[in-house]
Every structure is written in structure tokens, then in C-alpha cells.
Design goal:
Layout lengths: L3 E2 L8 E7 L4 H17 L4 E8 L6 H8 L3 E3 L2 H7 L7 H15 L6 E4 L8 H6 L1 E6 L6 E2 L2 E2 L6 H7 L4 E2 L2 E4 L9 E4 L3 E2 L11 H32 L3 E3 L5 E3 L2 E2 L4 H9 L1
Parallel strand pairs: 2-3, 2-5, 3-4, 5-6
Antiparallel strand pairs: 1-13, 6-10, 7-8, 9-12, 10-11, 13-14, 14-15
Helix pairs in contact: 1-7, 6-7
Length: 265
Amino acid sequence: MKLIPLHNPEQGTLRAVALMSGSGTNLCRVLEHEKRLQQTRGRLPYHICAIFSDTWDSKAAAIGREYNLPVIIRDIKAFYNAHNTPRSDTALREVYDRETVALLAPLEAAFAVYAGYMSIASPVLVAAFTGINVHPADLSITEDGKRKWVGAHPVRDAIQAGETYLRASTHLVELTVDCGSLLMLSPRMEVQLPPGADLTDKAQLAEITALNQNRLKAQGDWVILPRTIECIADGRFCRDETGRLYFDGIPVPHGFESAINHKQE
């Protein structure tokens, strides 16, 4: 059985573009980790070579200035308005992504880091790069054969359903949203609820969600996204001929940490 690394370090530094829509806090942690690796190793295992944002309201320009990176901003709302077309038009979305890919092509990046990118990637964008995304939920949990905590509000949904622990997941970006092959899972984080919490109260639920989502971002997203990119850059994630993922030669159908726990048991 032949295993093919997602990136072969013998071919040099993993070059990636960062895609973002908002504050870019995930991206900042990736960039900080890149600097630390350069200092400790004396070389760059991976390099974020540019930032792309689909909204003028994001912090992309400020981050680009701080880290001396080129920034491309194409406001997707303005793009759709200029075509007098609703955002639900998927055909026009492919036009937008095709133009974006053309703008990014000179960078010669094979990977894209989805760092808080809120637009759904069309097949054009998915095919152009190997995408890496972080999702604030445990994507190894399934129900009726489908991933349970997907979508825009996984932390709220999990807490409301009575989950007592949360985890973040990194995964490859594939055509179905939040359903790409799992890469890493963060350690479990216990949900914090105030005494007498009433999860049926919308205001309370919103406050509890925000509290736990911020905790999970710090303990989960900001830890495993940079670490995942580093491990891919080091050639530790591989695929076999069927597309199954491996970490250091061990199959990881439910993510890297899940495999470690199984081995320890």
C-alpha cells in the first residue's frame, strides 16, 4: 500500500493562501506559529504567502500590514449587487471563485487555509487548492450516519442538546460543507454553565454560547489549526489510493487525537 503525503517536505516549504471574512484571529495564530517555527527550526515548514478576504469589513488589511503580506479584497456582497443577483445563485458564485483563483494563481500556492472564511466554497475553489478548515465542533460525532454538529451554530446547537464537552476539528475542505476528511481533534473541553442555567431562554443561551465558544476558540481552534498545517507541511498526513487519511502511517478515520486515544486504550 502506497501512502502519498498531502505535502512532501522534500519539495520545499508548503505555500498557502489564507482566506478570511472577519476578525482573522485564527489566521493570526497561524502566522504567529509560522514565526515561531522559523525561529526554532531556522527554516519555514509552511508559509502563508497572501491573504484573501471576501469582505471589506474584515481585518485582512490590518493583518497584512502587521505581517508584511500582500492582501486581496473582493467584497462578495458588492460582486453580487453589481450583477443584480441574489447570493443564492451558485452559478455566479463559481464566476466569483474562478476570478479569485486567477488572482491568486501567480502566488503558486497549492494550499488554502480557511481562517474564518464565511462564504461557501464552490467546486471551482475546492478544486484549485487543498483546503484546510477549522470547525468549532467535534465532527467525529455522527447521528444516523451523518455528522451531527455541522452548520453555522454548532456550539449553540451542541450545548442546547445537552452535550457536556466540546472539541474543535480540522478537516480538508471538500464539496459538502463541514464534511471533509477529518485531520485533528482538540482535547475535550467541559461546557461551562452558570448555576440554574435555563437553556430554553434565548438570551441566556446566547450568553452561554458566547462564553463557551470563546473558550473553545482559545483552547481548540487556535491550537489545532496551526498544528495541523505544521504536520501537513512535515509530511505527516498522508492518503492511500482510496483517499483514506493517515497520520505517521496510522489510519485516522476519526481524526488524529481519536487515533491516539484508541491506541492508549
